[in-house]
Amino acid sequence: MPRADQTEIRLRILIERPVIAVVHSLQVGDAGVLDPKRSAAGEPLAFDFPVRVAPGPKFFGDQVRREGPVRRFVYVRIGQSAGDHASLWSRRMKIDIHDLDPAMLADAAARGGMIEIAVDGTGKDGTPACATVRPVRRRLVPA
User: Fold this and answer.
1) I need a labelling partner for 124 at 20 to 30 A (CA). Which of 32, 52, 56, 107 fits?
2) Is the peptide bond between 57 and the residue preceding it cis, with omega within 30 degrees of 0?
3) pLDDT single digits (tens) 67-123
């Protein structure tokens, strides 16, 4: 799809309640690590990045992964997968973006705001959350 048909918007993945001292990172492409962070005292971790949105909506960008004809998501790597080879964990969070509200996407494009997707970083067992993680909330953050 030509880039002229695409609008760039900003996304923020906000990991609330991350396991303390465990490295988290956005995944770039199939294996790359981007912007590794760790929480010192349980404070949230924020990852900001651009995506391009085309009618449909369809999503494109360095962090956007695909599964099938519709599903689009972002991976957050954890522990060893995020570059901390001494970590006890080697995991990834899968955070869906294909189901973002079209009205929110349009608002972000028109106003230049950022869509924040907050997820819980700690699983029920107290270890880092992994696999498909459902958002706690999604909201438009004004520019």
Assistant:
1) 32
2) yes
3) 999 999 999 999 999 999 999 999 999 999 999 999 999 999 888 889 999 999 999
Ordered DSSP codes for the chain: --GGG-EEEEEEEEEESPPTT-EEEEEETTTEEEEEEE-SSS--EEEEEEEEEETTTEEESTTEEEETTTEEEEEEEEEGGGT-TT-S-EEEEEEE-TT--HHHHHHHHHH--EEEEEEE-B-TTSSBP-EE--EEEEEEEP-
> What letters, b where the CB count within 10 A reaches 16 and e where it falls short, cover 21-36?
ebbbbbbbeeeebeee
Tokens 């997820």 correspond to 119
Please determine, for residue 31, whether its predicted confidence score (pLDDT) is greater than 80.
Answer: no
**Torsions phi, psi for 60 (to 5 deg):** -140, 155
Cα separation, 87 vs 118, in Å, equals: 24
CA-nearest of 115, 111, 119 to 137 is 119
How confident is the model over 4-18, as a mean pLDDT?
A: 94
Spatial distance between the Cα atoms of 12 and 42, rounded to a whole number of angstroms: 18
Closest CA to 113 of 142, 93, 82: 142
The average confidence (pLDDT) of the chain is 93
